[in-house]
Design a protein that fits this description.
The chain is α/β, with parallel strands linked by helices. Helix content is 56%, strand content 10%. Helix 1 packs across helix 2. The chain starts with a strand and ends in a 7-residue tail after the last strand.
Length: 133
């Protein structure tokens, strides 16, 4: 089991430079956990693509449904006090600290490509693995 941030989810569904890495990650460890916040963040990412007319409303809804299906059973509430403590002790946003708090609570790593988050919480975070050649 791992915690993934919303960008990792997005890299899986929106092809780009990290898509192969995320596909490898999913094959290696398909048990992904996320704070419930991920839904709002992913909707916001998809909204940007809709506004730029990069894809249709129906396609955005399909991607959202696929991601929700993937993460079904892996969504968790987080301890607000822990989130706020992490905010107090770092330069990271409360949004980002929700992912860190969840990883800490579950005793697993948070996979993220966010350098600021990795610098702030090196003991809890890791970057995407490189896929085999």
């Amino acid at each position: 089991m791992i915690v993934v941030d919303t960008n990792v989810v997005a890299y899986l569904y929106l092809p780009g430079e990290y898509t192969r890495n995320v596909e490898h990650l999913l094959a290696e460890d398909p048990d992904w956990s996320v704070p419930i916040l991920w839904r709002s963040e992913f909707r916001s990412i998809l909204a940007g693509y809709l506004r730029r007319q990069s894809f249709s409303f129906d396609f955005a809804c399909e991607l959202l449904a696929e991601a929700e299906h993937l993460l079904m059973g892996g969504e968790h509430e987080v301890d607000s006090r822990l989130v706020m403590r992490l905010v107090r002790d770092s330069n990271c946003s409360a949004y980002d600290c929700e992912f860190v708090a969840l990883a800490m609570s579950l005793g697993v790593k948070l996979v993220t490509m966010d350098a600021k988050l990795r610098r702030g919480f090196p003991e809890v975070t890791t970057s995407l693995p490189n896929p085999p050649e």
